[in-house]
Design brief:
It is a single chain. By secondary structure, this protein is of the alpha/beta class. The protein has 3 domains: 196 residues, Rossmann fold; 147 residues, TPP-binding domain (Rossmann fold, 3-Layer(aba) Sandwich); 203 residues, Thiamin diphosphate (ThDP)-binding fold, Pyr/PP domains (Rossmann fold, 3-Layer(aba) Sandwich). It is 41% helix and 16% strand. The strands form 4 sheets. The protein has a 6-stranded parallel beta sheet with strand order 3-2-4-5-7-6, with helices on both faces. A 6-stranded parallel beta sheet has the order 11-10-9-12-13-14, sandwiched between helices. It has a 6-stranded parallel beta sheet with strand order 16-15-17-18-20-19, with helices on both faces. The relative contact order is 0.11. It catalyses: isochorismate + 2-oxoglutarate + H(+) = 5-enolpyruvoyl-6-hydroxy-2-succinyl-cyclohex-3-ene-1-carboxylate + CO2. This is 2-succinyl-5-enolpyruvyl-6-hydroxy-3-cyclohexene-1-carboxylate synthase.
Length: 576
């Protein structure tokens, strides 16, 4: 076998990735990563996605992994290219999303000596990867087996604790296919059994033990004030939790990311906790004796504050190994799937919690008129509701961070979409467009992204990803000329001097022409300013191929004022 040794090592690495079930490789152009890039390009089972901006590429991979629920690989050249992946790596760690970063690097003798495009890449992402590894430089004296076993070990750890893995891959020039070829027959002979097996070189199977059953479970079933909370969950897990809780007769507080919208209609779903708990009297009256929470990253600030003050027995079930206890209360924690925990903790039909269930459901019914009235006028609140109402079945809804996701959480409207996403690991406003393009690509379904103007400005380069996507992606841009959420800061909304300070240091009005941005990337574009225009634009955008941008214009300060007004109404609601 006559071949360049860097090419040979990279081909073995990518082959083993494929055998481990990694199908998608997100690649940014660069010279040093040529061995990895060519190995992917020539592999018949590898699917590649290319983008010039590593920051956007990282978030695209994140969205692809979220949608496909499998590890996605990212390949970059050396230097600052790797550093641009940092925000996506952080989000992947915080959200337990499996990514594999394969960063090409200079050989060790070129690091820290002033060589071009050479930086310290080992440990670059600090403690955010669940595993960080440094491969040996390819040579006839080094062990290919060690490289393959390290990959298997890293992916085994990732399976136990989902999150990003970083493997740094140094390549010494020359590394192009026709350069410095040598006879590698002896090297391949050592791997003959692996080559012929079709299996990963090293594979560790996960612990399949069942979750420990709570010793107090029989007596807890008799509690009269038991509450179930659903955070981030897949549709399948969410439906199982809801059916389980409904059998027990327990109210279920649902987060906008929990996929409650996909469940069959039934009693006990509470989608307005953020509003209801603003009423201090109600919040006190519904103090629970037992709280069972599935998944973390709850959007509702008031729900998190209410949980932090609760003295209830608190169970939390989540597949990640992360500590999910922002209120730092007494907690029993299970690391397992929701369905595994439900199987170990069966419930029986009971009426012991009937009064508690009715207290929640009647309160939600009591504020329904307040919510409906808040949606009558053209506003960001009303358009969020219209998006929910017009979303097609077998589609995805991606909720942008900052104000957007809070509006969806506040309003809790029914929706026909099959999938619901938000980047709530670190809750940043960067990379949202790129992530949604990855989601659309992974699902091969229509995806609607609702995003604020400042968030889109953070990710304008990713309009290129959107323009090149073959999937139907509808980008709904809420343009209120700056950071609307900063109007909610308590000390910056009173006198004119405070308001000016808020604009200058927080909101940063921009006056950007988004029509020109869409035109730059050849994206279909329409600006709307009322219900009827949005209705037509959104309906048409969901039916056309490719990506499109709908800019929905609002008066600055309107959304935050309506948001606070609705919360104030419920807070003073006598019926609660």
């Amino acid at each position: 076998m006559i071949k360049n040794i860097n090419i040979a090592w990279a081909e073995c690495l990518i082959e083993d990735c494929i055998r481990h079930g990694i199908e998608h490789f997100c690649i940014a152009p660069g010279s040093r990563s040529t061995p990895l890039t060519l190995a992917v390009a020539k592999h018949p089972k590898a699917t590649s996605h290319c983008h010039f901006d590593e920051r956007g590429l990282g978030f695209f991979a994140l969205g692809l992994s979220k949608a496909r629920q499998q590890t996605v690989a990212i390949i970059t050249t050396s230097g600052s290219a790797v550093a641009n992946l940092y925000p996506a790596v952080v989000e992947a760690k915080q959200s337990s999303i499996p990514l594999l970063v394969l960063s090409a690097d200079r050989p060790q003798e070129l690091v820290a000596v002033g060589a071009n495009q050479a930086i310290e890449q080992q440990g670059m992402f600090a403690n955010y990867p669940v595993y960080s590894g440094q491969l040996a430089e390819p040579s006839v004296d080094a062990s290919l087996a060690n490289m393959l076993s390290e990959l298997g070990h890293a992916l085994a750890l990732q399976q136990q604790t989902p999150g990003p893995v970083h493997i740094n891959c140094p390549y010494r020039e020359p590394f192009y296919p026709e350069q410095a070829k040598q006879d590698l027959t002896a090297l391949y002979k050592q791997l003959e059994a692996w080559i012929n097996s079709g299996s990963p070189y090293y594979q560790q199977h996960p612990n399949s033990s069942q979750p420990v059953v709570s010793q107090h479970w029989p007596e807890l079933l008799e509690k009269s004030k038991a509450l179930v909370i659903i955070g981030q969950q897949t549709a399948e897990q969410s439906q199982a939790i809801i059916a389980w809780a409904q059998q027990a007769g327990w109210p279920v507080v649902v987060d906008c990311q929990s996929h409650w919208q996909t469940a069959e209609e039934g009693t006990g779903l509470i989608q307005h906790a953020e509003l209801l708990l603003a009423n201090s009297r109600f919040a006190e009256q519904v103090q629970a004796e037992l709280i069972i929470q599935f998944g973390g990253k709850l959007v509702s600030k008031r729900l998190n504050q209410w949980l932090a003050k609760s003295s209830a027995k608190y169970y939390l079930i989540d597949q990640s190994a992360q500590r999910v206890n922002p209120g730092q209360g007494i907690q029993q924690r299970w690391q397992c799937s929701a369905q595994a925990w439900l199987h170990a903790h069966p419930v029986k039909t009971s009426t012991s919690s009937q009064q508690y269930l009715e207290r929640w459901t009647q309160a939600q019914q009591a504020i329904s008129e307040d919510v409906n009235t808040a949606l009558l006028d053209y506003s960001e609140l009303a358009i969020c509701t219209q998006i929910s109402a017009q979303q097609k079945p077998q589609s995805a809804l991606f909720m942008g961070n900052s104000m957007v996701v809070r509006l969806f959480e506040l309003l809790g409207q029914p929706c026909q979409a099959e999938h619901y996403f938000a980047n709530r690991g670190a809750s940043g406003i960067d990379g949202l467009l790129a992530t949604s393009v990855g989601v659309a690509e992974g699902l091969q379904q229509t995806c609607t992204l609702v995003i604020g103007d400042t968030s889109l400005l953070h990710d304008l380069n990713s309009l290129s990803l959107a323009a090149n996507s073959q999937q139907n992606l509808v980008i709904v841009l809420f343009n209120n000329n700056g950071g609307e959420i900063f109007n909610l800061l308590p000390a910056l909304s009173t006198c004119s001097q405070d308001q000016q300070l808020s604009k200058q240091y927080y909101q940063l009005p921009h006056q950007v022409d988004f029509a020109a941005a869409a035109a730059t990337f050849n994206l279909a574009y329409q600006q709307v300013v009322n219900f009827e225009q949005f209705d037509h634009a959104f309906e048409r955008a969901q039916q056309q191929a490719g990506a499109s941008l709908i800019e929905v214009c609002f008066t600055p300060g309107d959304a935050s004022a309506r948001y606070q007004s609705l919360i104030s109404q419920v807070a003073s609601h006598d019926a609660l």
